[in-house]
């Protein structure tokens, strides 16, 4: 009787021990798989975070913060290569779009929705300045005005039109001259001068091309208008 009891206890003890042994192996292997999976998951997240750096809107150097939009304006090169405008990664004016021309190139954009309201180009060497005034007259507050020059942006500019362009925040419009390079982003109803403006005087001594200054390229982030 006694030996049977001892055998029973031994069987119980061995069963307990082996259960514990296998249980522990199973759990520890489970933990291992888990932590390995976590490791993979972490790597996956890291890879995803790094991806957007490769492409930025309009090919700009930096991504814009939330509630800002990316833009890039390039003026015409001499009288050869037309200007281009990019807004939030979309080309809105270019030779390929077939909506640019010699003189002044305008894009009117809703500053809240970024919808392009209208584009237009006006020959400022032999065109009609009244066409520019007609184009600008209906502009409402809350409209962004993007401008890029091509060849000659100024010969036909009169004081009244220079005044209108200045009221959009331009510091240059009053002195813009024959064959100057100019890029500008302003707005109807701006109280201050726009920080988004570049200008190069046509100047024989310093011109990059024979009769024209260097191309201007301006990019950055503009705060969206919020109501
Ligand atoms: C811009 O779009 C908003 C929403 O459609 C509209 O309420 C506003 O009048 C527009 N502004 C301009 C200047 O077009």
TrEMBL record:
The chain crosses the membrane at residues 6-23. It is found in: Secreted. InterPro entries: FAM3, ILEI/PANDER_dom, ILEI_FAM3C. Pfam families: ILEI. One of its GO terms (molecular function) is carbohydrate binding. GO terms for cellular component: extracellular region. Keywords: Disulfide bond, Lectin, Membrane, Secreted, Signal, Transmembrane, Transmembrane helix. Residues 102-189 form the ILEI/PANDER domain. Belongs to the FAM3 family. This is ILEI/PANDER domain-containing protein.
């Amino acid at each position: 009787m006694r030996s049977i009891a001892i055998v029973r206890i031994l069987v119980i003890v061995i069963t307990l021990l082996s259960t514990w042994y296998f249980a522990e192996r199973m759990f520890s292997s489970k933990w291992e798989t888990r932590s390995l999976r976590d490791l993979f998951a972490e790597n996956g997240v890291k890879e995803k975070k790094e991806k957007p750096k490769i492409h930025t809107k309009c090919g700009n150097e930096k991504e814009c913060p939330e509630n800002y939009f990316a833009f890039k304006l390039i003026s015409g090169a001499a009288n050869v290569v037309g200007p281009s405008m990019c807004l939030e990664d979309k080309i809105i004016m270019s030779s390929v779009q077939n909506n640019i021309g010699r003189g002044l190139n305008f894009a009117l954009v809703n500053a809240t929705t970024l919808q392009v309201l209208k584009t237009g180009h006006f020959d400022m060497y032999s065109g009609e300045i009244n066409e520019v005034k007609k184009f600008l007259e209906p502009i409402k507050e809350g409209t962004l005005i993007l401008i890029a020059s091509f060849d000659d942006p100024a010969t036909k500019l009169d004081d009244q039109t220079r005044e209108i362009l200045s009221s959009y925040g331009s510091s240059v419009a009053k002195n813009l001259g024959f064959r100057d390079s100019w890029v500008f982003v302003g707005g109807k109803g701006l109280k201050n001068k726009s920080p988004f403006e570049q200008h190069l005087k046509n100047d024989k001594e310093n011109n990059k091309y024979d009769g024209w200054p260097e191309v201007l390229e301006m990019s950055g982030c503009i705060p969206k208008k919020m109501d």
